[in-house]
């Protein structure tokens, strides 16, 4: 069985980078770098009457670094504060990022985002809303410099993008496909 022998902090900023020394059954030690920024949430707000979803685009340094597009569609998401309930965090992020006050949430998973390199475990939610629930413009908090653009996308377009391998963000793809499985009539 593999066990952690020790860890050391290599970087302490918005995220932490830890170096873990592990050993296996054979006793041989090896290291792994671990990105550590804590638990997160993502939510897909969708209007079942108008058959649209609220998503965001924002510049992502890793995507830009790899020469990717600057307009990756994403479900609203964010990091949980210490002790914060995942559903409360999802509601907070939806209000901040897309300006929608959410009521009921439907759990869609609790998954490791990138279990090979990150400690991030993400709660995923689906959340119906109505036009009257749009209480603000969204766009994120100014002090976070996220440069968020709010986008309302027809569910049929999200279906087509998923089928064409054109939804580049993993959490968003998972949420769209989960909604398709649970509520296929919304995508007709």
Automatic annotation (TrEMBL):
Gene3D superfamilies: Nucleoside Triphosphate Pyrophosphohydrolase (3.90.79.10). It comes from the Bacteria. It catalyses: GDP-alpha-D-mannose + H2O = alpha-D-mannose 1-phosphate + GMP + 2 H(+). The keyword Hydrolase applies. Keywords: Hydrolase. Residues 36-175 form the Nudix hydrolase domain. Its cofactor is Mg(2+). The keyword Zinc-finger does not apply. One of its GO terms (molecular function) is hydrolase activity. One of its GO terms (biological process) is nucleoside phosphate metabolic process. GO terms for cellular component: cytosol. Pfam families: NUDIX. PROSITE patterns: NUDIX, NUDIX_BOX. InterPro entries: NUDIX_hydrolase-like_dom_sf (IPR015797), NUDIX_hydrolase_CS (IPR020084), NUDIX_hydrolase_dom (IPR000086). Belongs to the Nudix hydrolase family. NudK subfamily. This is GDP-mannose pyrophosphatase.
